[in-house]
Amino acid sequence: MYQIPPLTNEYQFQDLICDLFNHLHNTSSYQLFGRKGQAQKRH
Q1: What is the largest CA-CA distance in the chain?
Q2: What's the pTM?
């Protein structure tokens, strides 16, 4: 089992999840999109 130290901010969490999905799917296509506070859906 893996243990990681507690994450100190939401950016570390986003990076972790992005890296995790890239690893699980053997790809590098998952990337962070946008910035904090930016709308997530275009109209």
Answers
A1: 43
A2: 0.70
